[in-house]
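F.,

This is the one I mentioned.
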């Protein structure tokens, strides 16, 4: 499983571990990922995603998963999240009609 957030595309970064004697060795900074179950009000079901804690905070700030996905740029989202976004938009159009 890749270490990439499904909503924000945050992934590992590379940097240096610096010792007391200032010797620099390569290391990886991994994102803080959590397996989270979101509730989609439009679809009426639960959705399980692997997201960063920063994305979790953003979802809460935007008013839930549905509102976050509608505002999100599809280029940043994972394939599963893009499919969810399409399903939510399709269902919203059907409910509006």
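My design for it:
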């Amino acid at each position: 499983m890749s270490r990439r957030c499904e909503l924000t595309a945050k992934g590992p970064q590379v940097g240096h571990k610096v010792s007391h004697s200032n010797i620099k060795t390569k290391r990886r900074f991994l994102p803080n990922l959590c397996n989270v179950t979101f509730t989609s009000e439009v679809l009426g079901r639960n959705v399980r995603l692997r997201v960063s804690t920063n994305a979790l905070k953003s979802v809460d700030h935007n008013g839930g998963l549905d509102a976050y996905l509608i505002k999100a740029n599809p280029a940043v989202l994972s394939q599963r999240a893009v499919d969810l976004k399409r399903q939510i938009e399709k269902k919203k159009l059907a409910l509006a009609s």
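The chain is about 35% helix and 30% strand.

Talk soon.
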